[in-house]
Amino acid sequence: MQKTFDIPRELMTGEDLAQPGMLSCQGCGASLAMKLALKGLGERTVIAVPACCWTIIIGVYPYSTLKVPVVHVLFETAAVSASGIRAGLDMRGEEDVVVMAWAGDGGTFDIGIQSLSGVAERNDDILYVCYDNEAYMNTGIQRSGATPMGAWTTTTPSGAVKQEKKKDIEKIMLAHEIPYVATASVAYPDDMIKKFKKARTIKGTKFIHLLSPCPPGWRIDPAMSIKITRMATQAKVFPIYEVENGKYKINVYPEKKIPLKEYFKTQGRFRQMSEDLVKAAQERADRSWESLIRMDGEA
Amino acid sequence: MKQVIKGNFAVAQGVRLCRVGVISAYPITPQTTIVEELSEICARGELDAKFIKVESEHSAMAAMVGSSTAGVRSFTATSSQGLLLMHEVLHWAAGARLPIVLSNVNRAVGPGWNIWADQTDSVSQRDTGWVQIYCESNQEVLDSVIMSYKLAEKILLPVMLTYDAFFLSHTSEIVDIPDIEDVDEFLPPYRPEFRLDVDNPRTFGGMIGPDCYYEERYVMHKDSLKVLEHYSDVCSEFHDKFGREYDIAEEYRTDDAELIIVTAGTITSVTRIVVDKLREQGKSVGMMKLRMFRPVPVERWLKVLGTVPKVVVVDRNISAGLGGVFANEVQAVLYNSETRPVIYPVVVGLGGRDVTPDDVEGIINYALENDKPKDVPLFWGLKQ
């Protein structure tokens, strides 16, 4: 059983590669996520950032909040541009430098999935991170393939909230049989840093899916963003696990389990969710969790 | 060493001689044999490069954005739909000032599906910021790969060299393949001032507002114009080293010409024969081979064409609703000449329709016989 509320020592000590001055909204999960990721990866890291909130968060020319090299790339090319960087660094003999693609859910689940699949099929040696805030937040809250069923967005407006299920991106990535697939959450920073440290040591394509709260998009109080994000794991809708060379391991067994309805209630975006949709979502979450438990520890 | 090779093999040899570090490409007819030959060259250990076999042309160019930013010489090749799929990334690569070299086999754009020669694919990329060079022979294709890297790495702009589908890509010609030691002397290793470096972290391509973007694009435009002068240096250095002459454009028997025909690609070779024949008949005609199309060699075009009574421009491409793109641009340049020539825009050979010496002769005679063009543009050889 894992303690979930420890603040990792790394967060309080050592140099921060992610500096103050980020142009993010209050309570933004994505900015905290970068800080945690770089704590795990260290300074020998290069980042490819496609169009996403981080295009802005990093700062406007000539400023950058990050003390590692960053290449801004096109929306649908995070994975393959990272592969290109990898090839270039390998030709320079810098195999030890980690190349991380850092994309949002739109850039991963939707427009970038083709090049991501190509990279995973070739098992190119990059770390791909999707910080998932469950909609196109940078353009002002439009639905993506990662938006949960029942959620309001500006393109699934009042009276017509999203009816379709969220894509199971882990299953898609696992189907490529890459060496490492993991979920992580800014609400569990100790677990998250560990995963980035581990990813650094693995050759081949690594995929980490982060749940990253977005107060304006989720219609929540910024002060509550970490608490609500933790509830997603407690409600089993965003389980924290990893699959290393096909072996499943659940990393967080929440001490407190809550019904999904409680999680939905905390957020304005789910205000119009019908009882039927709540029931369907609960059933889906239960099924996924049970199948995850069955696979836990299995190769 | 002289060998009889196809245009696509000439490209692959050029890439080997330039010691390219990262290749990324996706197969498309008629470019495919470049990808195959480069795979063989890498597999045989004749070139120490990473070859990323991507899932699309869009990704091929996106991978180049990564590898070139990492400071490594990068190459890709494509054709037609593949080039169009790359369009977004072409703009990005040029804006990021990455010295990538791309060879494009000019092929028609669908629908209907047509794999034959047509330059609409590359002319429609003219606003991407890439240098564009049109080749006429397999020797020129190979030499252009080498010269393109020299130019690109000097000015930090990407270069696209193009040549006609099948007429060059799949036709064997005698090509003098330079020794790699000589190419090494001509083209030193790529050592960029700025590249991805964990010891000196920088951010590339980040957000810039209205206060800087305008100036940034102005600088890019000015640098693009400098290509004309730099390329002359590259060509003269290449001539000194390898003995073959190239330029931003080529004049053929233009002295005292009362008509000059402007061509690009393999139609040029056909036209040379026709010009010789007509000269023998006492007709004072000449030719200007359009070689560099971006940046536009304005001064050169004005000098060659500005005082000639008649200019025929042959386009194997079409911008529907306008006509041939080369004719349109030549027209724009010649508007500034004091004695504006009469311009005869002619669209020919779209989708690989053969353009024979008889066709070119007919086109020139049509212009000689008419004081003004009868049609703008004239569609030569159109079936009624």
Question: What is the CATH domain class of the largest domain in chain B?
Answer: Alpha Beta
User: What is the third-level CATH name, the topology of the largest domain in chain B?
Assistant: Rossmann fold
According to CATH, what is the class of chain A? Alpha Beta
Mean pLDDT metric of chain A: 94
Please state the structural category of chain A: alpha/beta
- How many DSSP-defined strands of chain B? 16
Shape of chain B: globular
How large is the count of helical segments of chain B?
Answer: 12
Strand order of the largest sheet of chain A: 2-1-3-4-6-5-7-8
Biggest β-sheet description of chain A: 8 strands, mixed
Instruction: State which percent range the strand residues of chain B make up.
Output: 15-25%
Question: Termini distance of chain B?
Answer: 49 Å
The percent range for strand residues of chain A is 5-15%
- Helix-strand pattern of chain B, N to C? EHEHEHEHEHEHEEHEHEEHEEHEHEHE
| CATH domain fold name of chain A | Rossmann fold
Structural class of chain B: alpha/beta
Q: Please state the overall shape of chain A, judged from the principal axes of the Cα atoms.
A: globular
Low-confidence stretches of chain B: none
Sheet having the most strands of chain B: 7 strands, mixed
**Element string of chain A (H = helix, E = strand):** HHEHEHEHHEHEHEHHEEHH
Number of domains of chain A: 1
